[in-house]
Amino acid sequence: MKKNRELWRTIAVLICDIAMAILEFYALTRCYKSSGWRMLRYYTQDSNLLAFEIAVICAMVTIICLFKGKREPPEWTKHLRHTAVTCLMVTFLVACLVIVPSDPRESFYSFMITGDNIYIHTLCPLLMLTYHLAFTGFRKYRFRHAVFTGILTVLYGSVNLCLVYQRKLPPPYPFFNVHGQKWYITTLYAIAIPFGSMLLAYVIGKLGIRKRRDSIPL
Q: For a Cys-Cys bond, which of 4, 15, 39, 45 suits 35, CB 3.0-4.6 Å?
């Protein structure tokens, strides 16, 4: 019974990974048509591109494992998916809690629900979070596992801050406007967002362990 449950859980994750890849491909294609490669300036599109790539990799590995008679893909695929989930949720939370409240030109409806935004800001993050927590999980998860997500966020932020500071790139987000705000505000965001992403990764990882222990029946 337990073996069958593991098999059906793996099949459910495979279906979700394929659906996620299709949805991300559609969303990213729309973004590319409207902005071209300039879309890569934004953490939102970068995190969605990362999620697309990871969903494709996880789906391919899962299919190979099933053909080999294995009921579960290797543990590293869960860590890959967890990284994508965390980056997407950083996008979702920053959009909700930072960008919309700080930009008078934006409303929750226009920034989260309409046009391409509904895919890259809302649907994709919530979809991947839901099936990651429902069907996958870790045997152990420690804070050091969350550091990788923070490193990705720091890499994105440091590259963009340097380019914006040198005036080679317009600020992709209001909090990157280093020439239009106090230095300590930039410093605060530079510390808070990477640390927040690591904390978020840790929380999601721990929730995954709890869900795993609950053994959702299939």
A: 39
